[in-house]
Amino acid sequence: MTVTIYDVAREAGVSMATVSRVVNNNPNVKPQTRKKVFEAIERLGYRPNAVARGLASKKTTTVGVVIPDISNSIFAEVARGIEDIANMYHYNIILCNADKKKEKEIRVINTLLEKQVDGLLFMGGVVTEEHIQAFRTSSVPVVLCGTKDENQAMASVDIDHEAAAFDAVNVLIEAGHRDIAMISGTLQDPANGFARYQGYKRALETAGIPVRDEYVRIGNYRYESSVDAVNYFLELSPRPSAIFSATDEMAIGAIHTIQDNGLRVPEDIAVISVDNIRMASMVRPTLTTVAQPMYDIGAVSMRLLTKLMNKESTENMQVILPHEIINRHSVKARA
C-alpha cells in the first residue's frame, strides 16, 4: 500500500502539519524533530505526492518544454542549457517532442497546460496565430526559445538569424566568390528559412552581386534534402563556386555530395553554414560555420522564465544573443 503523510506522522510521533513543514523545508522546525521525521520517511520509503503539494501551493515546480525534433542534435544542446538552469532553481522539466507539426505543437501545449505546469518554453519554427491564442489562454508565463513571434509580443531568446546569414555569406564574398548558391529552409520559417534567406540576399545585394533564383533551393534542414539541391547546382552553368547552407546538417550533406561527384571542398566549391553542431568539426574538411550559442539560448530562456514565474522585474523581454563565425577548412580564399 502507498505510504501516506499520516503514516509518517504516526511513525515519527508528530503531527501531519509537522511532516508537511519538514517536507517543504520550512525553517520553523526543531533540528531533532526534523531528524526524527526524515528517519521515519527513510524507514517507510515515503515519497511526497507532488500533485497534492501542487494543489495546496498552486505551484508544481514543473516547466513544460516543447521541442520540435528530439532527434536533431542542435536541440539537445538547448535542452541541456534549460535543464541545468532548471535544476539550479529547483524546477523539474517535462520535455515533449512535437515533430515540427503545428497540430501536434498546439496539442502538446494544451496538454502541458492541463498538467498545471508553472511555465512553458516553446522551441519551434513558425509561431502562428493559433500558437499565440494557445499561449494567451495560459495562466502561466511562456518564453519562446530559439524563435520569436512576428510581432515580438512574446518573451523570447534567440540570435539575429538575418545578421548571422549576412555574416556567413560575406565570408564567401571576402574569399573571392561571386557565384554563391543557397540551400535554404522553408521560407515560411521566420528564422532558419526566411530570415537566413534575407541575410543571404542582403549580402549579395550589398556586394553588387545579382541574386539568381536558380541559385536558391529549399531544403527541409536534413542531410538528404541537400543531396538533391547540390546535384541540381552541379548541372547549372555557371556552376556555383560556393554554397551557403541554412543549417550545418544540410551543409554536411552538401560536402559529401560534392565529394561524391569527384569535386573538392573548398578548392572547387566552398561551403559555409549556420549552427555549429558537433559534427561540423568532425566532417572532412571541417565546416566553417556561424555558431549559435545553443546552450546559452536554452539557459537564458529558462532563466527568463524563472523571472516571469517568480514575478521578478525583467528589463528585456526579447533577448538577442551574439553569434560567432567559426573559421575551419571548408572555405578558403580563391586563387
UniProtKB/TrEMBL annotation:
CDD domains: HTH_LacI, PBP1_CcpA. The keyword DNA-binding applies. The keyword Amino-acid biosynthesis does not apply. Residues 3-57 form the HTH lacI-type domain. InterPro entries: CcpA, HTH_LacI, LacI/GalR-like_sensor, Lambda_DNA-bd_dom_sf, Peripla_BP_I. SMART domains: HTH_LACI. Keywords: Activator, DNA-binding, Repressor, Transcription, Transcription regulation. Global transcriptional regulator of carbon catabolite repression (CCR) and carbon catabolite activation (CCA), which ensures optimal energy usage under diverse conditions. This is Catabolite control protein A. The lineage of its organism: Bacteria, Bacillati, Bacillota, Bacilli, Bacillales. The gene is ccpA_2.
